[in-house]
Automatic annotation (TrEMBL):
Coiled-coil stretches noted in the UniProt entry, renumbered to this chain: 217-244
Reaction catalysis annotation: ATP + protein L-histidine = ADP + protein N-phospho-L-histidine
Keyword tRNA processing: no
InterPro entries xref list: HATPase_C_sf, HATPase_dom, His_kinase_dom, HisK_dim/P_dom, HisK_dim/P_sf, Sensor_HK_Regulatory, Sig_transdc_His_kin-like_C
Protein's organism: Roseovarius indicus
Keywords per UniProt: Coiled coil, Kinase, Membrane, Phosphoprotein, Transferase, Transmembrane, Transmembrane helix, Two-component regulatory system
Protein name, entry field: histidine kinase
Amino acid sequence: MRFFKTLSGRFLVLTAIFVMLAEILIFVPSVARFREDFLMSRLERAQIASLALLANEDITDELQEELLLNAGVFNVVLRRDAARQLVLSSPIPSPIYATYDLRNPAPFELIGDALAALADPTPRVIRVIGEPSQMAGLLIEVTLESEPLRSAMIDYGLRILLLSAVISVFTASLLFLAVRGLLVKPIRRVVGHMQSYAAAPEDARQIIAPSAGVTELREAEEALQTLQTQLTHALKQRERLAQLGGAVAKVSHDLRNILTSAQLFTDRIEMSDDPKVKRMAPKLVNSITRAVHLCESTLAYGRAEEPAPKLEDIDLDNLVNDVIESERLAVGESGISFSADVPSRLTVRADGEQLHRVLSNLVRNARQAIIDTGKPGEIGIAAYDEDGACLITVTDTGPGLPPKAREHLFQPFHGGATKGGTGLGLSIAQELVRGHGGDLALTRTDETGTTFEIRLPHAPKSA
């Protein structure tokens, strides 16, 4: 049974079936043609027997009976001029069942008569009318039994079917060998390359070398070669990045300890009475603080393994108010105002803790951007439903993002939305939103402010 599940096995079976179907379509007209030839031969033999009688009218009854027996008919009627003449006759065992005229038969009429003869096993007496050969009269008419005709048709049909089966098996075998050589073996070779490559994808020697002669297979091999080459390079780069990440984590850990010690010393430097020291100490403290923050952020990002969100119905209005109240406490009297435009009954299927982190990060970045300008500003959070999703926008009236920050906005360690940032906050925020099946995007930024948009799909409660 396993053989018939293979491509070559199924091709063999289908080819045999299709050849048999083609032979069956040929079988019906072939049997009809055989029936016509059989009846025409009876007419010719009957005509020969009647000519013998016409040549010698003194033929005995025994000889007439022998002539009719050899012709396979009961009687012969020959019309030579205008008269219809019974030339040879013998007793008919039963009434005539049907009359068939073979002078100008239609193809479908012959096919229908042949199928009817095969389907009727009852012995009948039939009349057949035809044209005499060699212009020996106007018409010839004979009566004969249908059973010998039906037996001959069945024998002929069985031989045709047997020959068709032999031809179909032979043809299918040839096609099987051809398909096996042209398609199956190359496909198995490709599968073998894929399996060996899957066992050791880092080994460049396992990459397939296109060699198929069939155009479609060669294109598939070339596409597979390109894919394997890119994947091998990506795996090597990933391995190098993993090693580099480990080294960076170790360096960041040690550097953080060193900078922490330096930070303690700078606290004592600030107590110096030297005016130059007092003037330079804050800058030194700020530089060391940023370096410590960078090391801590790098270590935190390297350890970050965000869990899958635990989806539940979240009251978005309460969540946004919590974020805004926390930020109000942080800004104090800095001149930054907050606003919320969230429908009171708007709920969203999300992880409340992770969504709070995302909104807090966006609001914190907006707050820092406004503070850096030294001017008052406003931060607003709005939410509404649109096209089967919940849209949350965070808008500020800050100075907008610089071009460099826009190019690598969501890539870690490429600069963030705020001056001196690492970009880790936005990268983690986007990762959390995508974990919900949504997206975080920058929709507007110019000198009048910036807008970020969070799109969260409405997931079913069973999710």
